[in-house]
Design brief:
The structure is a single chain. With 229 residues, the chain is of the alpha/beta class. 29% of the residues lie in helices and 26% in strands. It contains seven helices and ten strands. The chain has a seven-stranded mixed sheet. Helix 1 packs across helix 2. It starts with 11 loop residues before the first strand and ends with a strand. The model is unreliable at 1-9 (pLDDT under 50).
Length: 229
C-alpha cells in the first residue's frame, strides 16, 4: 500500500464509511468498502476466512496490511478467547503513524485499550516477531508479495491488495502460485475480489475456488482452497 510520501505522491485522505468506521482513499481507490470498512473486513476475512478455517491456532498471512483493520479484527477474536494466531503481514509501503492515529480503528471497534499496542506493532521498523499479546503474535514484513517465499507455512491468506484495475501486478498467476505454495494442504485464501479473470487465475494456480455472497455493496467474493494432498 502507498504511504503518500515523495514528490508527486497522490494524496491520502481519511473518509467515513457506511458503518461509521473510517478508511483511507488514495488516487481514487478506497482501502476498504465505502459501504462499511468493518462490515466488509469482518465478512470477507474473518467469517469467510479465519472462522471458516475452524482452527484453535492459525497461521495467517495478509497481503496488503494497509490500515491494519484486518489485523485488529483478528486480534479481537484472539482476545475473546476464540483462537490464537501467528500473523504475518506483507506491506512494502506502510501507512504513516500520523495517518493511522487519525483513523481511530481501535475506538471504532470498541477496544480503545488496544490502541497503544496496535500502534507499536504497526510502526515497528523491524521484520521480526513482536511480543505475543492477547493470543496474537505479529510481524510486519516490508517485502512485495513477488519476493516472499515461505512454503507450507500458513492456514489462511487474507488477500487484500488494491483492485486488479489499480494494481494488476498483484493478481497474476505467479503471485497466486506463490500463495498456493505458502499454504498448507487444506489452507484457504479469501479476497473481496470476484472478477472472473481472478477466479480463473486462482484455478490455474491449483486452487479449488468458490464464489460466496459478498459484503454489503458487493454481490460476490472468492474463497480459494488448496486441495488436500
Amino acid at each position: 500500500m502507498p504511504n503518500g510520501e515523495g514528490a508527486g505522491a497522490k494524496r491520502i485522505t481519511a473518509v467515513r464509511t457506511g458503518d461509521g468506521s473510517r478508511t483511507l482513499t488514495w488516487g481514487g481507490e478506497h482501502y476498504h468498502s465505502i459501504h462499511g470498512a468493518v462490515v466488509e473486513s469482518t465478512h470477507v476475512y474473518i467469517r469467510s476466512g479465519l472462522e471458516h478455517a475452524g482452527r484453535a491456532h492459525a497461521d495467517v498471512l495478509e497481503v496488503g496490511l494497509g490500515t491494519g483493520l484486518n489485523l485488529l479484527l483478528t486480534w479481537v477474536r484472539c482476545l475473546e478467547g476464540k483462537l490464537s494466531v501467528d500473523y504475518t503481514a506483507l506491506e512494502p509501503h506502510p501507512v504513516q503513524a500520523s495517518v493511522l492515529e487519525g483513523l481511530g480503528h481501535c475506538t471504532d471497534l470498541g477496544w480503545p485499550g488496544l490502541h497503544e499496542p496496535f500502534m507499536a506493532r504497526m510502526t515497528d521498523p523491524s521484520a521480526g516477531w513482536q511480543e505475543a499479546f492477547g493470543g496474537l503474535r505479529f510481524r510486519k514484513v516490508e517485502l512485495p508479495v513477488q519476493q516472499f517465499e515461505e512454503p507450507g507455512s500458513y492456514d489462511v491468506v487474507y488477500f487484500d491488495a488494491f483492485a486488479p484495475g489499480h494494481q494488476p501486478e498483484m493478481w497474476t498467476l505467479e503471485v497466486f502460485e506463490r500463495m498456493h505454495r505458502a499454504l498448507r494442504p487444506g489452507g484457504l485464501l479469501v479476497t473481496y475480489c470476484a472478477k472472473g479473470e481472478v477466479r480463473r487465475t486462482l484455478e490455474r494456480a491449483g486452487f479449488r475456488v468458490e464464489r460466496l455472497t459478498g459484503p454489503p455493496g458487493k454481490r460476490e467474493m472468492l474463497r480459494a482452497v488448496k486441495p488436500e494432498a
